[in-house]
């Protein structure tokens, strides 16, 4: 039990340190680099043209659809990982169960395909 | 100036690389020897005996271990900058960096010094906290993968039971960094680039994870240590070549390298989501990318080509580490070769390739591998074979290879049919255009 | 958990509590929707920490993979679909008092449930001595006596989710 928590303590410390290590050179650079801001230097760089209007505009719904399809397959993966992990200890029934699970989702993929939801326009 | 390289130069380059690898390997092994798993316990009890608070004494070795594991990829990245530039130069028939130090080896240090003294420009209207957080997150998402990498049979950061899914999970944090950086820059190109990149990254996570399921299936373990140990008899690359290929392609896409380099489509999006970054913050995005390419090499080596396995790996862990680095470098160089040889896909082609080709293939491949593994297990049981060495693993490998061939044939026929249909469609369109044009 | 003595677990628990609650507060109080999404991710990360602390490593990884890697991104996409995402001043929802009531009731219920053992008195000694791992989860998911029906129904549910998403998003092209 303590052993398991020790593993996670390692991961926890890693999670804290991982963003700090790359921040170190950024901090050093901030200390020794010159700092002479002016309005033109800090202007938004859009190929030399002045920026028009608000950047944070509404975006296409298509990205959202791809996001949703991705989410569904991501959740599918979460179910398949334990299945694959235990697979060698199980019988043929497990293969059938996994096959049905994957088949149902492949259905969804082909539905999306047929409805042209996978077309990038 | 004579740009064509002579064999002699290649030889010298090769020797230098080997020497560097040995020196680097030695240093790292020393580092791991100091902070390795076996010493960790000693250190903590040693500190407790010297009157430290047990809680803190238990924490110190963990901290040292994390620092050791996390510094290694960062140090390698500095070398990688040189390798990458030199390799790209050779492919493009140039010499590459050769002024600073022998073979230009000190060039990365000069680059770092230059970057440190560059002014850091934050665009007006940027969302500062998010803008500043994105670059470290990008690097962190790659660094975190190294926590579960088994360097040798005895040296690894941590042996998580769920190592495989852990690395997919932390790698997905990079997506977040991209969208944070792109949005906070207050630049339309950056935002557009970020959206494209995120669509690319999340899409290719599906075939990546699907291909990852195959080693998990074959090893019956999700821990990276377990997956490597399961390859003692036979590398998974020979059992599941299609999964290997799928994983390689999707990991190439995950780092956003050519042919999937929509992230830095200079000609279209003036560098994509990181356009407004400068100085060290910009460098961090690139350091993250360089490190990710090598990390993918390491993952390929661990998942498909046996990690540290090789002669005498158990007796001399340093040798195991050396094997791992050799195998990783092999995949790393293939990745660089692909990157420097292929043109860029269009965004719609990238999406089509993923959702209409790679995802169906990966699903078919997973089902076929599961079926063939079931048949192979049944055969082994009836023939009384226990997989322990190379020869006893041959029947299983044979069955799985048959499965791979079947998948390959099905995919070949299916893609061929699709291609014919598409050509017919185009032909018809051309006719109708000329008919109406007259 | 032992109170009074300062264990690393207690420290981690406090840290993740701050992350979860602070992130949730940030989501609720931010008028900038994208920053709200970032705070949401912080909050979700705190929950992943709780799961790791409970030795449920698989669920912790799933929390990061699905909630931070997928739902976080989806939320950002959804926010980009709205107008005036950086400065929300109006309250569009007229039924806020219902949600206030429901969440207050839920909160009270949970507090009561924690203090009074409504769901049976479970002491740590009652728990199974073996720690189930992810392999056990896989076995339970696909054996006939286990949860094979919910496993397949989950697949059906995911399929329905894709169909629903496509229908909603593409109604303008019919």
Q: What is the secondary structure topology, with strand pairs?
A:
The complex is a heterotrimer of chains A (121), B (438) and C (174).
Chain A: H1 2-32, H2 61-86, H3 92-114
Chain B: H1 7-35, H2 37-49, H3 54-91, H4 107-116, H5 128-143, H6 163-171, H7 173-184, H8 188-219, H9 224-229, H10 236-239, H11 241-254, H12 266-269, H13 279-304, H14 317-341, H15 347-383, H16 394-437
Helix pairs in contact in B: 1-2, 1-3, 1-14, 2-3, 3-13, 3-14, 5-7, 5-13, 7-8, 8-11, 8-15, 11-13, 13-14, 15-16
Chain C: H1 8-29, H2 33-53, H3 57-80, H4 96-115, H5 134-142, H6 148-169
Helix pairs in contact in C: 1-2, 2-3
What is the total tally of β strands of chain B?
0
* CATH architectural group of the largest domain in chain C: Up-down Bundle
User: Hey, roughly how much beta strand do the residues of chain B contain?
Assistant: under 5%
Low-confidence stretches of chain B: 1-5, 36-41
Order of helices and strands of chain B: HHHHHHHHHHHHHHHH
Secondary structure category of chain C: mainly alpha
| CATH fold description of the largest domain in chain C | Four Helix Bundle (Hemerythrin (Met), subunit A)
Structure in words:
The complex is a heterotrimer of chains A (121), B (438) and C (174). Chain A has 121 residues and is mostly helical. Chain A has a single domain (2-114), classed as Methane Monooxygenase Hydroxylase, Chain G, domain 1 (Up-down Bundle), CATH 1.20.58.1610. Chain A contains three helices and no strands. Chain A has helices at residues 2-32, 61-86, 92-114. Chain A is flat, with a radius of gyration of 25 Å. In chain A, 43% of the residues are buried. Chain B folds into two domains: 1-114; 118-345, no CATH class. The longest helix of chain B has 44 residues, at 394-437. Chain C is mostly helical. Chain C contains six helices and no strands. Chain C has helices spanning 8-29, 33-53, 57-80, 96-115, 134-142, 148-169. The N and C termini of chain C lie far apart (58 Å). The mean pLDDT of chain C is 81. Chains in contact: A-B, A-C, B-C.
List its traits.
heterotrimer, A: 121 residues, mainly alpha, Methane Monooxygenase Hydroxylase, Chain G, domain 1, 3 helices, C: 174 residues, Four Helix Bundle (Hemerythrin (Met), subunit A), 2 domains, 6 helices, globular
């Amino acid at each position: 039990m303590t052993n398991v928590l020790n593993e996670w303590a390692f991961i926890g410390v890693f999670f804290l340190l991982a963003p700090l290590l790359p921040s170190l050179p950024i901090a050093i650079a901030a200390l020794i680099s010159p700092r002479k801001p002016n309005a033109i230097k800090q202007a938004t760089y859009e190929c030399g043209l002045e920026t028009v209007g608000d950047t944070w505009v509404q975006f296409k719904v298509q990205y959202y659809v791809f996001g949703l399809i991705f989410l569904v397959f991501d959740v599918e993966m979460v179910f398949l990982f334990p299945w694959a992990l235990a697979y060698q200890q199980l019988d043929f029934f497990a293969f059938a169960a996994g096959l049905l699970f994957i088949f149902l989702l492949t259905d969804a993929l082909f539905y999306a395909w047929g409805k042209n939801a996978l077309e990038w326009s | 100036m004579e740009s064509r390289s002579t064999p002699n130069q290649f030889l010298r380059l090769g020797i230098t690389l080997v020497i560097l690898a040995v020196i680097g390997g030695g240093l790292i092994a020393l580092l791991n020897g100091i902070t390795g798993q076996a010493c960790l316990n000693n250190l903590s009890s040693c500190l407790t005996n010297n009157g430290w608070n047990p809680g803190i004494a238990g924490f110190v070795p963990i901290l040292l271990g994390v620092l050791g594991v996390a510094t290694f990829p960062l140090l390698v990245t500095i070398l990688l900058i040189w390798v990458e530039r030199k390799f790209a130069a050779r492919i493009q028939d140039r010499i590459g960096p050769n002024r600073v130090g022998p073979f230009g080896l000190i060039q990365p240090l000069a680059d770092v010094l230059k970057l440190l003294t560059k002014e850091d420009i934050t665009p007006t209207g940027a969302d500062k906290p998010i803008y500043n957080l994105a670059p470290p997150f990008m690097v962190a998402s790659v660094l975190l993968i190294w926590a579960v990498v088994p360097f040798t049979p005895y040296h690894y950061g941590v042996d998580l039971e769920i190592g495989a899914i852990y690395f997919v999970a932390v790698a997905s944090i990079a997506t977040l960094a991209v969208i944070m950086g792109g949005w906070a820059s207050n630049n339309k190109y950056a935002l557009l680039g970020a959206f494209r990149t995120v669509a690319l990254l999340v899409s290719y996570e599906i075939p990546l994870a699907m291909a990852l399921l195959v080693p998990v299936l074959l090893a019956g373990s999700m821990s990276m240590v377990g997956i490597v140990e399961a390859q003692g008899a036979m590398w998974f690359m020979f059992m599941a070549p299609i999964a290997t290929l799928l994983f390689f392609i999707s990991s190439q896409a995950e780092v956003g390298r050519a042919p999937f380099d929509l992230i830095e489509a200079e000609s279209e999006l003036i560098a994509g989501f990181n356009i407004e970054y400068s100085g060290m913050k910009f460098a961090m995005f690139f350091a993250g990318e360089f490190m990710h390419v090598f990390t993918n090499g390491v993952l390929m080596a661990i998942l498909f080509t046996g990690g540290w396995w090789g002669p005498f790996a158990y007796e001399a862990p340093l040798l195991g580490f050396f094997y791992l680095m050799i195998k990783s470098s092999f995949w790393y160089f293939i990745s660089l070769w692909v990157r420097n040889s292929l043109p860029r896909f269009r965004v719609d082609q990238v999406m089509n390739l993923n959702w209409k080709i790679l995802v169906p293939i990966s699903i078919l491949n997973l089902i076929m591998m599961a079926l063939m593994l079931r048949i192979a297990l049944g055969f082994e049981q009836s023939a009384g074979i226990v997989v322990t060495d190379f020869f006893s693993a041959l029947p299983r490998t044979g069955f799985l290879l048959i499965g791979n061939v079947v998948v390959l044939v099905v995919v070949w026929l299916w893609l061929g049919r699709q291609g014919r249909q598409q050509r017919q469609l185009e032909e018809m369109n051309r006719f109708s255009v000329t008919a109406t044009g007259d | 958990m032992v109170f009074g003595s300062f264990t690393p677990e207690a420290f981690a628990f406090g840290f993740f509590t701050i992350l979860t609650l602070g992130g949730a507060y940030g989501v609720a109080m931010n008028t900038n929707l994208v920053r709200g999404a970032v705070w949401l991710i912080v909050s979700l990360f705190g929950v992943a920490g709780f799961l790791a602390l409970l030795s449920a490593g698989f669920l912790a990884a799933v929390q990061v993979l699905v909630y931070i890697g997928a739902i976080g991104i989806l939320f950002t996409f959804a926010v980009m679909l709205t107008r005036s995402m950086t400065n929300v001043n109006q309250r569009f929802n007229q039924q806020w008092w219902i949600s206030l009531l429901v969440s207050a009731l839920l909160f009270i219920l949970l507090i009561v449930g924690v203090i009074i053992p409504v769901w049976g008195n479970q002491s740590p000694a009652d728990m199974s001595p073996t720690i189930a791992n992810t392999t056990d989860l896989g076995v339970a998911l696909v054996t006939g006596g286990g949860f094979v029906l919910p496993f397949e129904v989950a697949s059906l549910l995911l399929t329905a989710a894709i169909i629903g998403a496509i229908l909603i998003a593409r109604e303008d092209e019919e």
